[in-house]
């Protein structure tokens, strides 16, 4: 069997001709395997969705209970057969419930990574390399300049600033699924025991993380809390809220942003970020290249990101490689698909 008979790019996303299903389809399709709950991968309207239990639950929270015609939850390592094609899900280390999709038929194995990182994260299962013939890799940070620092050290920068400016509020912009909860867990690991305040749009996902056994400590919604309580406090909010009227509620706020893009100083200045925190939920250059090598693959397909640089790297390692040039994937959309019950406070 040729790889393109098992999986190929299409206008609606990656499609398996042999299995007649899509992976992270960008438009509504009859059957779709979803790698994780971020909105550029998980969309409503599919006839049937296969994903981890956590991803299905997160999709329901973000998109509404009727986001698909039918669903099937799959545990990590469990396999199902779709039209003679064996499909299984394996940890991607990106966010809670994120998975790589292993697709096999007639001895040929293709792994679709979705989004992934190989760095430690207490809020999700760690990335597991899966042996394969073809590895489909993201390349969000697919340039050698992107080498992420230790996330714990970046968290120490935040908490040091909190100690230096006890009269000011630190507002941390963080994506509402995954990054926000990771920052909470990192702060707790660093010994920050005070309540962490959150924008209302974060409460549903954060409560879900807690329900799955992720220890985040005392998390308090901002709404209804007097302004005086925020002196010396940390508030976490979706990035788009940091510059609107909502941010004026706080005591002389210091704007922070947790993102791998904070490695680029121009991005931090453009957003008006005073304290950039280089914390990413995607693999950096070293993580991408190490993960590709760990799969033992013979061929790499590269998508959504700096595709050409990673393709060039693969060629220098005598690997077959090609960019997929697919559209529809990018930075996570932080506008909640279903309004938070707190009204966005």
Q: What are the salient characteristics of this protein?
A:
345 residues, alpha/beta, Metallo-beta-lactamase, Chain A, Rossmann fold, 2 domains, 7-stranded mixed beta sheet, 6-stranded mixed beta sheet, 22% helix, globular, disordered C terminus
Helix and strand topology:
Elements: H1 3-6, E1 8-10, E2 13-16, E3 21-23, E4 31-33, E5 48-51, H2 53-63, E6 71-73, E7 79-82, E8 85-91, E9 99-105, E10 108-112, E11 134-139, H3 151-164, E12 170-173, H4 179-189, E13 196-198, H5 203-211, E14 219-221, E15 234-237, E16 254-258, H6 265-271, E17 275-277, H7 285-295, E18 299-305, H8 307-316, E19 320-323
Parallel strand pairs: 3-4, 4-5, 5-6, 10-11, 11-18, 12-15, 12-16, 13-14, 13-15, 16-17, 18-19
Antiparallel strand pairs: 1-2, 2-3, 7-8, 8-9, 9-10
> What Rg, in angstroms, do the CA atoms define?
20 Å
Biggest beta sheet attributes? 7 strands, mixed
How far the N terminus sits from the C terminus, by CA atoms, comes to: 54 Å
The CATH architecture name of the largest domain reads 4-Layer Sandwich
- Helical segment count: 8
Kindly estimate the percentage of residues that lie in beta strands according to DSSP: 15-25%
CATH top level assignment of the largest domain:
Alpha Beta
Q: Averaging pLDDT over every residue, what do you get? A: 93
Q: Could you say how many structural domains there are in total?
A: 2
Explain how this protein is built.
Helix 3 (151-164) packs across helix 4 (179-189). The protein has helices at 3-6, 53-63, 151-164, 179-189, 203-211, 265-271, 285-295, 307-316, and strands at residues 8-10, 13-16, 21-23, 31-33, 48-51, 71-73, 79-82, 85-91, 99-105, 108-112, 134-139, 170-173, 196-198, 219-221, 234-237, 254-258, 275-277, 299-305, 320-323. Strands 7-8-9-10-11-18-19 form a seven-stranded mixed sheet, covered by helices on one side. It has a six-stranded mixed sheet with strand order 1-2-3-4-5-6. It has a six-stranded parallel sheet with strand order 14-13-15-12-16-17, with helices on one face. 48% of the residues are buried. It is globular, with a radius of gyration of 20 Å. With 345 residues, it is α/β, with parallel strands linked by helices. It is built from eight helices and 19 strands.
């Amino acid at each position: 069997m040729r790889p393109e008979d098992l999986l190929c790019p299409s206008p609606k996303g990656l499609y398996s001709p042999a299995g007649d299903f899509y992976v992270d389809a960008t438009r509504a399709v009859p059957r779709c395997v979803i790698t994780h709950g971020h909105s550029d991968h998980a969309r409503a309207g599919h006839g049937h969705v296969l994903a981890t239990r956590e991803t299905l639950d997160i999709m329901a929270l973000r998109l509404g209970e009727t986001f698909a015609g039918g669903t099937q939850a799959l545990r990590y390592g469990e396999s199902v057969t779709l039209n003679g094609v064996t499909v299984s899900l394996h940890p991607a280390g990106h966010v809670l419930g994120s998975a790589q999709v292993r697709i096999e038929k007639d001895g040929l194995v293709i792994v679709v990574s979705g989004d992934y990182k190989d760095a430690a994260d207490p809020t999700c299962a760690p990335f597991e390399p899966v042996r394969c013939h073809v590895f489909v890799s993201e390349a969000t940070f697919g340039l050698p300049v992107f080498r992420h620092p230790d996330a714990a050290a970046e968290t120490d920068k935040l908490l040091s600033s909190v100690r230096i400016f006890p009269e000011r509020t630190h507002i941390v912009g963080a994506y509402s699924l995954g990054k926000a909860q990771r920052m909470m867990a990192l702060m707790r690991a660093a010994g920050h025991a005070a309540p962490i305040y959150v924008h209302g749009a974060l409460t549903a996902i954060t409560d879900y993380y807690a329900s799955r056994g992720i220890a985040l400590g005392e998390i308090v919604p901002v709404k209804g809390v007097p302004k005086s309580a925020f002196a010396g406090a940390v508030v976490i909010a979706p990035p788009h809220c940091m510059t609107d009227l909502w941010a004026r509620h706080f005591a002389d706020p210091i704007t922070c942003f947790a993102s791998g893009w904070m490695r680029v100083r121009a991005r931090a200045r453009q957003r008006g970020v005073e304290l950039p925190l280089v914390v990413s939920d995607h693999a950096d250059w070293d993580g991408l290249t190490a993960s590709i090598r760990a799969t033992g693959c013979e061929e790499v397909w590269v998508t959504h990101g700096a595709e050409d640089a990673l393709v060039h790297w693969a060629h220098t390692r005598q690997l077959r490689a090609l960019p997929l040039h697919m559209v529809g994937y990018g930075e996570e959309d932080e506008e909640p698909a279903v309004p938070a019950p707190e009204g966005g406070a």
